[in-house]
Amino acid sequence: MSNRSAEAAEPGQSRAPNDLRAFWMPFTANRQFKQAPRMFVGADGMHYTTSDGRRVLDGTAGLWCCNAGHCRPRITQAIQRQAAEMDYAPAFQMGHPKAFELANRLVDIAPEGLDHAFFCNSGSEAVETALKIAIAYQRAIGQGARTRLIGRERGYHGVNFGGISVGGIVTNRKWFGTLLAGVDHLPHTHLPAKNLFSRGQPEHGADLADELERIVTLHDASTIAAVIVEPVAGS
Ligand SMILES: Cc1ncc(COP(=O)(O)O)c(C=O)c1O
Prior knowledge:
By secondary structure, the chain is α/β, with parallel strands linked by helices. It contains 8 helices and 6 strands; from the N terminus they run αβββααααβααβαβ. Among the domains are: about 90-120, no CATH class; about 125-195 and about 205-225, Type I PLP-dependent aspartate aminotransferase-like (Major domain) (Aspartate Aminotransferase, domain 2, 3-Layer(aba) Sandwich). The strands form 2 sheets. Strands 1-2-3 form a 3-stranded antiparallel sheet, with no helix packed on it. Strands 5-4-6 form a 3-stranded parallel sheet. A hairpin with a 4-residue loop joins β2 and β3 (about 55). The longest helix has 18 residues, at about 125-140. Bound molecules: pyridoxal-5'-phosphate.
């Protein structure tokens, strides 16, 4: 199937790609999208521009990646400057001063006890890395029996095997076999009838956290490596 609707675009103008088959889009109904594509070709501040010239308010900040706004000149210039100075340096046995500077700045604003930064390319990779660090840490301190991971129903922790295992989104899990072994799940907190607006701490919900005690007792505390939950449920 191809879409050639933009073939008439003027030279120098953005044009929609005329064949949409090759790009297998994530989390998207591909056939439907390709029958009626919605293309963004530009962005500025809090708006996108579509291929047919409309401005669209970006209510999700580029799925949470562009929270400072799109195409901000200071950010664009910083990216351009760095690409011209040094585009990439390996981090294996070699260093680059700005990576250390960024780690220090992150640690300075992080809560007490979060003293190190490990850089990843995505939330999914960060979650896999966090799970691996948790299990390896237990082994390194002589508690190698602590291998179990506890997540939460409906939780989202990315798209890789560890993340979908501790995550609780059924449609992201059911296709991929047995996933990681030794994972259990807390009950989810999506209870619309109870989660109506309330001031301060709501009266219900503590029992959902107490479920952690039950799960830990079931498996015995000596087998638990880590618990992972979203502080604010998003996806
Ligand atoms: C809590 C949480 N963990 C992990 C991820 C995965 O991040 P990414 O989409 O960058 O792989 C997300 C993304 O929405 C998230 O909200």
